[in-house]
Amino acid sequence: MTGMERYLKFIFQTLLLAGMFLFHAGAQAQAPGIPDLIRVTVDHSDNGVLIQWEPSPDTDIMYYHLYKRIDPVSFVKMFTFDPYTFEYKHMNSGLENLAYAVTAEDSTGTGNESIFGDNVHQAVSLTTEFDICTQSNTITWTPYLGWEGQISGYRVYGGISGSPMQELLFVPASTLSYTHADVEVDMDYTYYIETVNTNGITSLSPIDTVTTVFPVAPSYLSIDYVSVLDESSVEIQYSADIAGPVTSFRLLRRSNSGAPFTEVDTRWNVMESTQVVQDQFQTGSISYQYLVESLFQPEPCDTPIKISESNTGNSILLVNELNNQVVTLSWTPYEIYVPGLSAYLVQRNTGNGLFVDIATVGPLTTQWNEDIQSLVNGFQQGEIQYRVIALSNPGGGGTEEQSLSNISTVFLETHTQIPSAFTPGSNDMNSEFKPLMDFAPRDYVLIVMDRGGRKMFETSDPGEGWDGRFKGGDFVNEAVYVYYIQYTDYTGLFKSYTGNVTVLYP
């Protein structure tokens, strides 16, 4: 072996030993410390997923690697960063599987990379479902992973899409659902969850949207009129579009505004667009307000769902007050015709059962006065009846709806005058004896006797008086006689009078 051969052999052996040393040194080097994740959160301005981490505790770092979970058990390396980068916004993530991890690689150049293990953060994901039966949205979400034991709770934000999001409530870390009750129908609602940890750091979930889909409401639903039939009943007519999926309706009433409505009548799967209902109550004592709801009952629901509601309509309660022969009529306003209220007609009973118009007042007027001095003697029953009719504006093909009030009766003040003397045979106004009454009595009796108790005259006709003759024969002597009068007035009150009347001759 020459000297050159021996030198080359030495060089080869030296290099081999050095390589083996470097190999073993690299194999035995520890991986860099795992970078601690700070948070994973969604940026709602661009739907990017922001991942933030702390630097590795080791100083020999060449790269940071970002991993993303692609299924329940698998991660894939997505991006590599220089040792001075500590956050990244992942665009086009699909906002799904929001679990990320970060590893560190040192500068040995041998792929010496940390293993992230359980150092994984996963942002909250949420789903929202609309419950048509309860008219509510239920939001459920996954817990935030990576802050175990450090979560203060979750804030739920939501509202109608396009409107500012409102904080609905704050729940503890153990709560992962919330029901947003009494939502509006046929609206888009958006929600998101904000996770808050004990250090004040927050993480936002993606935004979820749900539509509160309801059956199409009837294109029209209206109370046409509420009209008094008699002292104990009213008639309500309502109209509805029955061409769509909703063909069931519920009529409700309440005694005064603000009180709860109660059911009067419910009709399922009606075939006619116009429905007429009668309700029973004392129409001269109270006014009821009515409302119609359209109903739909899907299979999963135990009770029907209100889809829409009509205008309100009310019975008109008319009352009167009589003072010095002036009648003041007052009534509850009618609310509301769909085409609007045109006017009120004030009507009076002529005494033959027919009502005639005596005044027309504007739609804002609910009071009217009448001086009845000239009418008193013309009403044989001792009473005057009034009613009011609310007229709608033209609508629905030019028709005009009418709503009648109850009949309000004015009981006239009665006067009975009994003469103390009269002059038989004088052919003047004082030629016969009878009481003067401004009403027609019932069960009338007039008896005249002499002071010995002998009957001179008797009648049951209020229009017939004693002409001074003894039982229709000769005129009686000038003297003082005793009378007895009894009757029942128009109010049903029994009255009787006993007194003296003097017969005088010219």
What report would you give on this structure?
The protein is 5% helix and 46% strand. By secondary structure, it is mostly beta strands. The chain has 6 domains: 1-27; 37-122, Immunoglobulin-like, CATH 2.60.40; 126-211, Immunoglobulin-like (Sandwich); 221-314, Immunoglobulin-like (Sandwich); 318-411, Immunoglobulin-like (Sandwich); 416-503, Immunoglobulin-like (Sandwich). Strands 10, 11, 13, 14 and 15 form a 5-stranded antiparallel beta sheet that branches. Strands 25, 26, 28, 29 and 30 form a 5-stranded antiparallel beta sheet that branches. A hairpin with a 2-residue loop joins strand 16 and strand 17 (233-240). Mean pLDDT is 89; it is low at 1-28.
Which key terms come to mind for this protein?
mainly beta, 5-stranded antiparallel β-sheet, disordered N terminus, about 5% helix, Immunoglobulin-like, about 500 residues
In short:
With 506 residues, this protein is mainly β. Helix content is 5%, strand content 46%. The chain has six domains: 1-27; 37-122, Immunoglobulin-like (Sandwich); 126-211, Immunoglobulins (Immunoglobulin-like, Sandwich); 221-314, Immunoglobulins (Immunoglobulin-like), CATH 2.60.40; 318-411, Immunoglobulins (Immunoglobulin-like, Sandwich); 416-503, Immunoglobulin-like (Sandwich).
